[in-house]
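Bit of a strange request maybe. I'm writing a small parser for structure token strings and I need a real example to test against, not something I typed by hand. Could someone generate the tokens for this chain?
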Amino acid sequence: MATKKNAAVRLGSAAAGLMLATAGMTLASRRRRLDAELLQLRRLEFEELASRRRALAHQQRMHWELLSRAIDNPTLAAVIDTYDPAIPAEKRRQYFYANAWYINLYHLYRAGILDQEEFYGHARELFQNPLMREYWEASKGQRATLKHSSEEARIGRMVDGLIKDLDEADTDEWWVVGNPPPA
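Reply from user aminoacidic:
Good idea to test on real output. This should exercise your parser:
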């Protein structure tokens, strides 16, 4: 009887050990499968980011191409000219060029090449130029059409604040004016 009982205990222990081993392999298998799925998800996220950056780069090239044509040809510029008609044609061409510089900076930010603090630093330098400030003022109506919650509108408000800080600064050291947003 004791032998049968020992055999039953050993058989039960072996079965329990087999069940634990099987459960361990199942857990390990599930973990490997989950790790593979997470890796695939990260790969897809990376591909999406790369695709987005390519699309932004293409859009920037298209913007520059169209704007270059407008700068070079006043009859084409008339198609996109929303500035005050009293502004001389040469000044409007300068505004188109200023827009190209600003949009280039904005696209560097959108593509993730510059963070917000770096954008701010470059904008602080760019808006030292009086023509850039004139362009910014002349284009406020265009910015007013943006959805208030959009990234572009938010960045525009940040530039508005920067220009205000530059105008009110008591120093010629423009590179220290304003409070860059956190990166």
